[in-house]
Amino acid sequence: MTASTDVMYRLLVQGVTDYAIFMLDPDGIVVNWNTGAERAKQFTGDEMIGRHFACLYRPEDRAAGLPEAGLRQARETGRFEVEGWRIRRDGTWFWAEIVIDAIRDEDGGLIGFAKITRDRSDRRTQELQLVEAKEIAERHRDGLAATTSFLDSVIATMPSSVVVQDAATGLIRLANRHAELLLCGCTGQLVGRPAELVLPTAVAALLKTALAAAGQPAATAGQPAATAGQPAAAEAGEPAAITQELPVPTAWGLRTLRMRALAIGGHGEQPLHGLLIAEDVSEERAASMRIHHLAHYDGLTGLPNRELFRQRLGEALAAAASGSGTAGTAVLCIDLDDFKRINDTLGHPVGDQMLRALVRRLREVLRPGDCLARLNGDKFAVVAPLLATQAEEEAEALAERLIAAAREPIEVEGQRIETGLSVGIALAPADADSGEGLLRCGDLALYEAKRRGRGRFLRYHDAFATAARYRRLIEADLRGAIARRELRLHYQPIVRAQDGETIGYEALLRWQHPVRGPISPLDFIPIAEETGLIHEIGAFVLHEACREASRWASGRSVAVNLSPAQFRSPALAAQVASALAASGLQAGRLELEITESVLLDASANNLALLEQMKQLGARIALDDFGTGYSSLSYLCAFRFDKIKIDRSFVREICDSREALAVVRAITGLSRSLRIATTAEGVETPEQAACLRREGCTQLQGYLYGKPMPPAALPEVRGGKTAREETVREETGREAVHCRS
Ligand code: C2E
Ligand code: CA
Ligand code: CA
What integer pLDDT is reported at residue 389 of this predicted model? Predict the structure, then answer.
């Protein structure tokens, strides 16, 4: 290198400002320092020239021998390149790109080194930012992937069917396994195919509606996608989900699907996707229908139950009130006659079959719109919408048809069962305008219809409500009547037909009500039977009658009436035994009067009870014979000691050939069976004469004496007549009264 080139070179190097260039001698001492180096290191050339370049390194790099290592490599290989942090004079750092070149003369002798340092802090910062961004991106990518796979597994295992349709192409983007199995029966049949072709019509239509609602009609497969120029969603914001539940043909047959469809994505503008979530609710629906059916229908007959009946009644009343066609509503309360007897004698399975057969028949006579319901046991009801003009006639015609339908014997397992219906009719708005009120009126009419004899219908009348109130009052008072000693027994003589000699008395209950006066047993005995009070009252009658008769020195007998209701208590025979034991009355002096209905009801049990009472030594009489069923078979079923011919025949015996014929038949039968007969209600000597002629053995009636209090009986007690004893009792009471 010549001196001039050396100067030029020096000037050139000095002028370079982007690079810090400095020359070192072979030992590393700075011999030259350019402007770039001054800028980079903030030392002037004067300050640096003559110093070892290692002073520019960080102490830890110096300690690690970095400067020497650089020189060594440059010396050995000709060049050393490195990048790293370097320090400036003011202590700040910069990222340096460093090249150290060994400089040799023509003979290869080492002259020194040229060290070129470049500040690459900007690039380094960018690089670091990039790395950081990359790291962040990678971190996010991992998180995103985790989230995606998590969502994928959630969607895949969701117990619902999920289908996503691309709004633009109409193709299915996603379908979970559940959806594929439900809709196709296998996987891989939905994704990538046009929704309209592969989804059931109803499902595809719902997706389409959801997309349309969000402003973007789903593209039909093959058509160009909707473009941005088309009308946007009607309103910004979340598009509402459309919910639908309907039967859909699936791979598993027709299933009820509850579906929700909504448009998603697209940031409130045109949606990107249609999302459908469907659940198979067939079992749920079936179960709730079963529950609904159980809650509203009677299991035996399949008829609506009381609950549904109330609903139907409410609907009929509302329809009539709104004037939509019907003008009124009828409620027909229906009670099956003798159902208990049928159940008891033929068994419940036969009773059930009979009910089903009967219901089939009743349904046939209903008009369209009539609703027949089973309220409980053998109680039914019909709610019938009525036309304006002949409301009452319509309802009565229906009742007649129902009664006629039930009258025909029903064949069950080869047995012909005779039954019948009683019907109570109530009309809205004439009788009541509420459902409750109508049912109440219908029930009252039914009660009255049954009381007047079965197999008939009766329209409600206000008097029935009054009677029912009266019954309730009586019921309330009857409960305390025994304790208050308001119930007493009167005794009616029964005489021998031959000579008119009194042979016994029938005990008949009397209720002297403190306010209402005397109340007939015909009024209060049925109430006692309905309420179960009859057991207490019956026990009282048995004890009282036996106690009274035991005091009669004449040894005459006493007859006690037993209600069929008393036979529901298996303790009846024990009650009789206890009355006999307590009074000391000879069993042979006690006669028990029962009616046929005792034999109608649960014959097996009742017959056993009758047998037990007969075993005690009491006699059993069949009361009111000739009324009711009067089946001769009862006379064979049980060995009665006596038949009492009902008052209705006795009353007519002189004027009616039929009455006479019945009496003659009964007395004839009794003679053959060697049973005594008592004619009841004998009021005239002519009747008595006629009955005597017919061979009746005993007579009872006003002709021989009305029922009277015990004190009025011509009976001697302990040497005194009853009358004498009463006078004594009364005087004694008065004496007590005077003393107090
Ligand atoms: P029943 O057992 O047929 O009693 C005969 C009824 O006929 C009695 O009516 C009696 O007073 C009435 N009678 C008797 N002779 C004549 C007559 O010549 N002419 C008329 N017109 N009537 C006559 P009563 O006392 O009103 O009893 C009515 C029914 O009440 C009885 O009919 C019986 O079924 C029932 N009853 C009465 N007392 C009792 C009782 O202690 N227990 C039960 N379970 N029922 C009773
Ligand atoms: Ca009687
Ligand atoms: Ca009688």
Answer: 66
**To 10 degrees, the CA torsion angle through 592, 595, 597, 603?**
40
Does the C-beta of 563 come closer than 6 Å to ligand 1? yes
Averaged pLDDT, 151-178 = 88
CATH topology (fold) of 487-732: TIM Barrel (3.20.20)
Mutate which of 491, 508, 699 for ligand 1? The one with the most ligand atoms within 8 Å of its CB, which is 508
| Position in ligand 1 atom list of the atom nearest CA 566 | 44
Strands 676-679 and 642-645: parallel
Residue 244 contacts residue 221 (beta carbons within 8 Å): no
> Which residue intervals of 379-485 are DSSP H helices?
391-407, 435-451, 462-481
Nearby residues for ligand 3 (ion, Cβ within 5 Å): 623-624, 680
Cβ 509 under 6 angstroms from ligand 1 = yes
* Whether residue 522 has its Cβ less than 6 Å from ligand 1: yes
pLDDT at 237: 52
Q: Yes or no: is domain 3-119 CATH 3.40.50.150?
A: no
Give nearest CA residue, ligand 1 atom 21. 681
Which numbered atom of ligand 1 lies nearest the CA of 489? Answer: 41
In short, whether 541's Cβ falls inside 6 Å of ligand 1 is yes
Other CB atoms within 10 Å distance of the CB of residue 154: 11
pLDDT tens digits along 229-259: 332 333 445 557 889 999 999 999 999 999 9
Least Cα distance to 384 among 334, 456, 455 occurs for 334
707 lines ligand 1 (CB under 6 A): yes
Name the token pair of 148.
């995606």
Q: How far apart are CA 510 and CA 541, in angstroms?
A: 11
Average confidence (pLDDT) over 534-549? 96
Q: Where are the domains of the chain?
A: 3-119, 160-223+239-285, 304-460, 487-732
Please compute the mean of the pLDDT values over residues 433-449 and round it to a whole number: 95
Q: Lowest mean pLDDT: which of 285-289, 454-458, 722-726?
A: 722-726
The answer for residues whose C-beta is within 8 angstroms of residue 146's C-beta and 6 or more apart is none
Which atom of ligand 1 is nearest the CA belonging to 700? 15
Tens of pLDDT, residue by residue over 70-104, are 999 999 998 898 888 888 888 888 888 888 988 88
Cβ–ligand 1 distance for 248 under 6 Å, the answer: no
pLDDT in tens, 486-514: 999 999 999 999 999 999 999 999 999 99
Does the fold of domain 160-223+239-285 match that of domain 3-119? yes
For position 189, what pLDDT does the model report?
A: 87
Q: Is 627 in the pocket of ligand 1 (CB under 6 A)?
A: no
* Domain 304-460, CATH number (from 3.40.50.720, 3.30.70.270, 3.40.720.10, 2.60.120.260): 3.30.70.270
Q: By alpha-carbon position, which residue is closest to atom 13 of ligand 1?
A: 681
| 536 CB within 6 A, ligand 1 | no
